[in-house]
Amino acid sequence: MNNVTATAPVGRLSFRPLDPLRDAELLHRWVTHPKAAYWMMQEARLVDVERAYMEIAADEHHHALLGLHDGEPAFLVEYYDPRHRELVGLYEPRPGDVGMHFLVAPTDRPVHGFTRAVITAVVARLFEDPAVDRVVVEPDVSNRAVHTLNEAVGFVPEREIQKPEKRALLSFCTREQFASATGVTA
User: Fold this and answer.
1) 33, 111, 119, 178: which could form a disulfide with 106 (CB 3.0–4.6 Å)?
2) Which residues contact 79 (CB under 8 A, 6 or more apart)?
3) Among candidate residues 104, 90, 106, 97, the one with its CA nearest the CA of residue 170
């Protein structure tokens, strides 16, 4: 996936490949922050974060991007092939499915609409790949805020599933559902 830049109502959002060593301290601050509880890395040490993202960097089925807001790190994106990671055996993947997670960095200066702009940019980025037909998410069933965001960009919940680490709401968004919900075509 190329380094795409989108101008959102909140500023310029762009992506770059995550560098597990260079970005580890930044990511460690983000994933251990109380607002990142659903990321499930609250107790991670710096070395744990480095190791986790080095494993992702070496994995052909899992990828991480650093999201930038006006050129500054502001969010994290992971995307994966659900035939090989995260959802193996929990649903029947279709060709063209891609799984996704995103995390907006904690801030003392929140920008109204920022998180929605981020998820919109992330899903648009994934749909830029012509091989992607559907984005799959599996957030914790208790994470009401992310369910609302997911629905705002076109995700439709299918059912709850039990993952080893959580009870999750399996939801899908097709290219058409995304365009209908956001007006963005990718």
Assistant:
1) 33
2) 62, 63, 65, 98, 99, 100, 101, 126
3) 90
- Residue 6 pLDDT: 58
Q: DSSP of 49-118, one letter per residue?
A: HHHHHHHHHT-TTEEEEEEEETTEEEEEEEEE-TTTSSSTTTS-PPTTEEEEEEEEPP-SS--TTHHHHH
Residue-wise pLDDT tens digits, 107-144: 888 888 999 999 999 999 999 999 999 999 999 999 99
User: What's the confidence (pLDDT) of residue 79?
Assistant: 97
**Residue 66: how many other CB atoms lie within 10 Å:** 20
End-to-end CA distance of the chain: 13
The model scores a pTM over 0.85 = yes
Task: State whether residue 167 is helix, strand or coil.
Answer: strand
79 and 100 Cβ atoms separated by less than 8 Å: yes
pLDDT average, residue stretch 27-33: 93
